[in-house]
Amino acid sequence: MTTLFEFAGGDEALHRLEELFYAKALADPVLREVFPVRQPGHVDHLTWFTAESFGGPDRFTTALGFQYLIDVHRHLKITDEQRDRFVEVYLEAIDEAGLPDDPDFRTAVREHVEFGAQVAQQNSLAETDADLHPIRAVPAWTWARQDTT
């Protein structure tokens, strides 16, 4: 079966998506506190994470590791409004990036983004390690469901 990574158009398409998303997030008044300034390498990191999660190369894990993801979100104090806006802006960027308009693909991507935003929010609010979301690896997302083990 074709992976979400392949169906999306591979690295080029996902990089285009993440570049559009990041530009939108930086300009968004609700997301400004979460994305206050453009960070070098952030688009690449977003691309690597999404690619790996969608069945592509494991660059995020090998180059950064999942602890990096926990560390960058820790103490951001992401609000419900920011979490929801993140999802909205990401879905807008998918349209603008020209990713496939297939309903099953869009459902899988939406569920992936919603899950990721929930994990990021939980980790951003964690006062102790016990409060962190239990996921400790890039989730392997598929058409029907995700594998978060």
Q: Could you outline the blueprint of secondary structure elements for this entry?
A:
Blueprint: H1 4-8, H2 10-27, H3 42-53, H4 59-63, H5 66-73, H6 80-97, H7 103-125, E1 140-141, E2 146-147
Helix pairs in contact: 2-3, 2-6, 6-7
Describe the protein's architecture and organization.
InterPro entries: Globin-like_sf (IPR009050), Globin/Proto (IPR012292), Hemoglobin_trunc (IPR001486). Keywords: Heme, Iron, Metal-binding, Transport. This is Hemoglobin. This protein has 149 residues and is mostly helical. It has one domain: Globins (Globin-like), CATH 1.10.490. The protein is 60% helix and 3% strand. The protein has helices at 4-8, 10-27, 42-53, 59-63, 66-73, 80-97, 103-125, and strands at residues 140-141, 146-147. A two-stranded antiparallel ribbon has the order 1-2. A hairpin with a 4-residue loop joins β1 and β2. α2 packs across α3 (42-53) and α2 crosses α6. It is globular. The two termini are 21 Å apart. The relative contact order is 0.17.
CATH class: Mainly Alpha
CATH-assigned homologous superfamily? Globins
- Compute the gyration radius: what is it? 14 Å
Proportion in β-strands: under 5%
Mean pLDDT across residues: 95
Give the second-level CATH assignment, the architecture: Orthogonal Bundle
Element-by-element helix/strand order: HHHHHHHEE
Terminal CA distance reads 21 Å
Fraction of helical residues: 55-70%
Count of folded domains: 1
Biggest sheet strand order reads 1-2
What's the story with the biggest beta sheet? 2 strands, antiparallel
Q: Quickly count the helices.
A: 7
Question: How does the helix and strand content classify structurally?
Answer: mainly alpha
Low-confidence stretches: none
The number of distinct β-strands equals 2
| Large-scale geometry | globular
Tell me the CATH topology. Globin-like
